[in-house]
Amino acid sequence: MVQTFKDQNIKRGGETNTFQGVYVLVECFTWPQRIKTVLCFARLLEFLHGQAKQYLLLNISAAHIVLDKDWNPILLDFSTMSGGVLGERGPDKKHIPMAFGYVDPFLASTGLWWESCSDVFAFGVVILGTISKMIVGEEVLGVVHTDDIVLTDEWAKVEFKDGCSHVHKSLAANPYFYDSDGRKITALGMQCIDDDPDRCPTMKEAVERLESVLIVQHHADALGL
């Protein structure tokens, strides 16, 4: 999913630099494949967060994930990982900047970005970018932003209304797309980036909600889930 949000940009002869060093046609990353990728990544985070001594990534970004030929996400960057046998994040790691566009300003200002809610927020940005084709930092007209930069979470909050879907219209045209799935996944993404960390889901809850959508319920075998 590296540079998933650049589906419509950085094209080379009809191809898109969607994954680091891997060029695929824009149309190849379909709605079912996106759902599989997001769910599998959610399961990875659930596994890390669910250990007796919790592991945290603290540097989630679409640019740190590649996909194999079956659209399974492979995490590349563990530079800021902490917890478990690695211990707490030390002073050296705390000086490593977290991925631009994936950090909640509230969490940063309160020091909570060393907690699991930081990973959940970044996962929400991944969800919303993947379903909307919104690029982190892409300029969007009508959105208040600084230095001509719009972040995915800012855009999503401005555009969101109860019961709406942030799914890109080209993805909603897929025969495996269900309207209710678009609304449910959008709502999950929005809850992950909620201003109040206490209202954010755990990764276990996020996985359960993703597993409940109709495309997964009806086509799990076809998706390789």
Could you walk me through the main structural features you see in this protein, from its secondary elements to its overall organization?
This protein is mostly helical and 225 residues long. The chain has one domain: Transferase(Phosphotransferase), domain 1 (Orthogonal Bundle). 40% of the residues lie in helices and 9% in strands. It is built from nine helices and seven strands. It has helices at 31-49, 91-94, 105-110, 116-132, 152-159, 169-172, 179-192, 203-211, 214-223; strands spanning 11-12, 15-19, 22-24, 55-56, 65-67, 73-75, 82-83. A three-stranded antiparallel sheet has the order 1-2-3, with no helix packed on it. Strand 2 (15-19) and strand 3 (22-24) form a beta hairpin. Helix 1 packs antiparallel against helix 4 and helix 4 packs antiparallel against helix 7 (179-192). The longest helix is centred in the N-terminal third of the chain and has 19 residues, at 31-49.
